[in-house]
Amino acid sequence: MFTPTFFITQPEPVFPNNPAYCCLLFSKISQVTQLHKKYDIIEKKTKGDKRVMSKSKCSRELYCKFLEVTSSRYSAVSLSEVAPENMSLSHDSITRWLASAKVQPKDLWEVASKEIDDSRGILAFDDVVIDKSRSNKMELVNWQYSGAEHGVIKGIGVVNALWQTSKDEYTPIDYRIWNPPDDSKTKNNHFRDMLSSAKTRGLEPEMVVADSWYSSLDNLKSIRSHGWDWVMGLKSNRLVNKPHIQICKLDIPDEGLKVHLKGYGWVKIFRFAGKNDRVDYIATSRLDLTKEQIKSYFERRWSIEVMHRELKQTCGFSRCQFRAGRAGRNHIGLSFIALIHKHRRRRLDKTTPYMQDWEVIKPAIQFALASAMI
After folding, report:
1. Total domain count for the chain?
2. How high is the pLDDT of residue 26?
3. 104-121, pLDDT tens digit by residue?
4. 186 and 286: one domain?
């Protein structure tokens, strides 16, 4: 006979034919059932003996502004604690809003398109993994390789695209969340989808730049189909010429070497020696480029790494604390939009995203120090 001991803790056995026991059991079951009615739980506030439903709701503008100004805590509870008093915003209403709202990559483009001028820039691609090694129940989390950790970890993979016109002028324009259980797509599929979106939106990049993770044959052909040129890293075992030979076995001069990439066509390849005997092979579809030009293009790709750091350190990008996949997608999308807002202020006020965060907390620190000295 099953005895639900989590409802009653008594040292002696309890028998179901005991009327008092049955009444208490049914009472507890009723309470638990009511608590688990997901959509019947509403926020209430007490005014004397009268209880009324709270109509306050979170919004994209409020949540995005919260990501812009906070620098340490990014939970729904934290937002509810600092929300304007006239809103009476509870953490439950924020959590429900995040689980029901639908922030999409097109919303990022709607904001980013206003920041891009008519000048030609490069289109850089990369992915970033939000470390969720300690998460066991969070959706969107998958095992994947992390360049930051130099190994396979549990995390949320985000493939993103950046429009860059100079070292200090860059704007995130698109992103995709890698979650094969949802759409069965690979990161390379997302890469090609974002290329098509960029073409549809009228972008004409001077160059498409990415590292060797995105230089697959299908990706290179997709870039060519849009009429664009590319500068990308190649793995050392890629085959060129006939008879086929790995590029690591080629004698590549400083001025580069024109080779026939298997399955693609003619490209120009360069060899770059790095620290600790590291060797990088960078190729381009532009056969007239010099080594210095290739180096310049590839160094400009570093802006996307800077963007990842800014997202994590100033916009709460990696601090999503919600289990629901929809809530996580909304948090990530609004983090990108928050960064665009910070970059807009950087241009107007000449303050970096890090300085903007400091300006928010500086008055509180000054007050605390002044109080301590009294």
Report:
1. 3
2. 44
3. 999 999 999 999 876 789
4. no
